[in-house]
Amino acid sequence: MQTEVTRLLGIDVPVIQGGMAWVAEYHLAAAVSNAGGLGLIAAASAPADWVRDQVRKTKELTDRPFGVNIMLMSPYADEVAQVIAEEGVPVVTTGAGNPEKYMAMWKEAGMKVIPVVASVALAKRMERSGADALVAEGCEAGGHIGENTTMVLVPQIVDAVGIPVIAAGGIGDGRGIAAAFMLGAKGVQMGTHFVVTEECQVHENYKERILKAKDIDSRVTGRSTGHPVRALRNAMTKEYLELEKKGASFEELEQLTLGGLRKAVVEGDVTNGSVMAGQIAGLVKEHLTCKELIDKLVKETDALIGGKGFYE
Ligand code: TUI
To answer: What is the pTM of this model?
Structure first.
């Protein structure tokens, strides 16, 4: 499955693992890269030293390209941006903001820069500032989301820019990948399905919650505060949405989610914690290794669109 994305990144399969906060650490990143995709470490809100350590541990486990995702709302974003340039991380993706101010430093360090965007406006701006490719993430995705679905966002961004577009949000199998290629994408980013892989270190309760999720189990909290976040429904999302309906203050709402992702990922509290996952959770029923998952995705995609000129 060679495409502009595999050639740009030096990988075998145009599948990128999402930079999921608290979830995407070095075991997972290295396993995805060793399986031929692009593994990512999520810097999330972690300090720069933690990221440096994760990068070094990833390098011990793989010789293949990998990346770091920087969450731009992090108080440590500036330091992490610097550290990944120093450590010679091959690829950086960014989320939840505009990474323009780091672009020159990263390009100088020879890194491939792939901002995650949720709008055509930011996509165009990122191309002008020198991005090598873009992840166009629709609101089917888990975590912090934009307004548009993948189906409407991807073709509009593909038409608006000349650099390769990687589709994200709502993709969980070969059918989703084939559909993304039909919309003009040259690769995909997947998060939710990688959470339930063997190598992913999240608490078993988190994996179980995804594996038993139904199509209607997804909720978006925080629309009223301007920070919409998608997670699987539980006692926390119920209370949050009730408080939001009552017009609760930002501070009161924030209190409810503070440390919630850690609670779910590390402690396994999937009742009161934040179980971030995409809408595709309902489709995810298999617990595989990263290699098994990626091989299966390639086989499924090939059966649908192999030899039809989408990725030769
Ligand atoms: O960033 C993500 N997903 C995330 S970040 C995250 S950590 C977090 N936890 C709780 C609350 C908030 C964040 C969990 N999930 N995806 C990429 C993404 N970026 N989706 C949407 C955007 C985005 C949104 C607005 C990118 C840029 C933007 O505006 C930039 C600007 O300045 O115009």
So the answer is: 0.97
d(CA 60, CA 42): 17
- Binding pocket residue ranges, ligand 1, CB within 6 Å: 21, 44, 71, 73, 95-98, 116-118, 122, 137, 143-146, 227, 229
Amino acid at 6: T
Specify the CATH number of the domain 4-201+283-305: 3.20.20.70
Centre of ligand 1 from the C-alpha of residue 97, in Å? 6
CA–centroid distance, 95 to ligand 1, in Å, is 5
Among 58, 48, 45, smallest CA distance to 17 is for 58
Domain residue ranges in the chain: 4-201+283-305, 214-276
**Cβ neighbourhood burial of 12 (10 Å; 0-12, 13-18, 19+):** middle
Residues 220-261: tens digit of each pLDDT: 999 999 999 999 999 999 999 999 999 999 999 999 998 999
CA distances from 286 to 35, 42, 289 (A): 17, 23, 10
Element (H, E) at 95: strand 91-95
